[in-house]
Structures are given as structure tokens and as C-alpha cells.
Amino acid sequence: MGEAVPAVVLAGARCKGSLLETTRQPYKALVRVGGKTLLEHCLDALRQCQTVDNAVVVGPAECRSLVATAGPRFSWLPCGETLLDNLLAGAQAVGGAGDMILACAADAPLMGPAEIDRVVSRSVATYKAFLYPIVSKEVSEAAFPGCTRTYARLRDGSFTGGNLMLVSRRLLLANAARISAAFAARKKPLKLARMLGLWLAIRLPFGKVTIAEAEERAGRMLGVPVAAVICDDAAVGMDVDKAEDLAVVETALAARLAGAASGSLRCTCTTSPRVPGCASDHPLSASGEGERP
After folding, report:
1. DSSP state, 283?
2. From CA 122, how far away is CA 135, in angstroms rounded?
3. Closest CA to 270 of 228, 245, 235
4. What CATH number labels 5-255?
């Protein structure tokens, strides 16, 4: 890939339901797992990425000290009331001369630098203005058996949405309301289909809509080229929404650390689910993160 892209880390999501009851923590970014907050896991990964330049974290005041220790490439902004508020604020504040920016959720701690680099490299190479990675049900369940995710059933297969996206800064600022509505509906397949048109809404429950059709309709709706990028890294689709997700992540991180401590573990979970969430072939460091080449 050419120039690295700037990143906006969305750290303002609040804990709800079982996750709030279990952690008593109002913000997901500040939930601790594997000895660190979810935000710290995210910043560790971004710091090692080759495709990511500087990053701005949009989150509560409690995130400020964590961002300060991450290094000079990272800055903090207070979060607003909605996801769109945070995304717009980050897009306007983050540096970088290029148009494309990476928006990354702070609650996906298994998503390491190799996974992020692969998504960014593949996405930028498509030359689309809005790119969203999706993970197949088969890949997700092989890495995280028994874990409940939300899937959209398409003719091409069943997919869950990823926890990062590449977007044109120009598109984001010009079409803020439309993008906000689509992003809010990303885990509600029927609602998303209704936004894309009645014909898609009728066919979606029967798995008759193709990825190409959804891309084409979304592109016409937004007035820009749109692409879904099929991703083979299960960690990209694994975020922490519920207490059971936190338990899955805790187990996965413990397995990585145990393997790294023994010096025998490599990230090969596309062929061996015993290393959940990572499809890389790079060695693990003692922290459980991939070593940057």
C-alpha cells in the first residue's frame, strides 16, 4: 500500500444490558479484559499497524490519560451524544492529507495490527469511497464456536459486520445523516434492507439478495461507489456487546498469552480454531499482539 491513512477511534459507546450488569462500567472502551481496557487493546494494535498513521480517539474524559500514554501519534477528543457526532468530530480533527480515513470501534480487542493492515490494504486497493468489511458465519463460528453474533443472510452466504470501515472524508461530511442511519442499521438486516429499497426488503429474509446488489443500491442511495469487503479474519467481526462476548474474548486472550509464553504459538486459526480470532501467520509477542515486521 502507499500512504498510511489516519484513524478515528470511536470510544464513546456505552455498556448496556448484561455487559453493564457484569462490569458496572458505563463505557465499553473502559471495560477491562486481559489486564487492559478495550481501548488500550485497540491503541496497541493501531500503534503497530503499517497502514495507519496518526489517530484521534473520540471518547469520554476517562480515556484521555490512556490516549496520552499511547504516544505522540494519538490525540483525544471528548465524545458527543451520538455515533455520528463522534465520527464527524474525529474526521474533522484527525490529520492527514488524503481523503480516506479509517473509522475503528474501540471494543474489538482481538483485532490486531495484521488484521487491520489487511483490511485497510484491500479496501484502499478497491478505490471505493465507502468500504465495510464483512465476515462470513463459517469463519466467525470456526474461530468462536457457540458465540452469538448477528448475521445477514445473503445469496452469497451469511455475514456479520466488521468493527472498522474505510470512508471518504468528503463523503462523510457531505452525507452525514444518511451514513448515520445506515451505520445504525448495520446489525438490523431488515431495517437496513428497507432503507435500501422495498424489493431488497422483500427478498432479504429469503436470502435472495446478493452482495453486489446491496453494494449497487447503497451506492445509488449515497451517490458514491460502495463496497463490502469479505474478510477472513474472524477478529474483525468480534466486538464486546454482551457479558458472554467478554467471556469469549477473555478466553481467547488467555490462549494467546499462554501460547506466546511457551514460544510455540503461531496465529493460524483459519486452520486451527484453538487460536480464536486471528487469521495471521506471524509470530505472537509476549503481549499477545503480532510483532510488527
Report:
1. B
2. 14
3. 235
4. 3.90.550.10
Residue recorded with cell 444490558: 17
Q: Give residue-wise pLDDT tens across range 97-118.
A: 788 999 999 999 999 999 999 9
DSSP tag of 279:
-
Element (H, E) at 73: none
Q: Name the residue type at position 35.
A: G
- What global pTM score does this model have? 0.83
Compute CA distances 199 → 12, 209, 213, 217, 245, whole Å. Answer: 35, 9, 11, 11, 34
CA distances from 42 to 81, 266, 274 (A): 22, 20, 22
Q: Cell match 446489525: residue?
A: 187
- In this predicted structure, what is the pLDDT of residue 197? 77
pLDDT tens for 266-284 read: 443 443 333 444 444 444 4
Q: Where are the chain's structural domains?
A: 5-255
Please answer whether residues 73 and 55 qualify as being in contact, where contact means their C-beta atoms are separated by less than 8 angstroms. Answer: yes
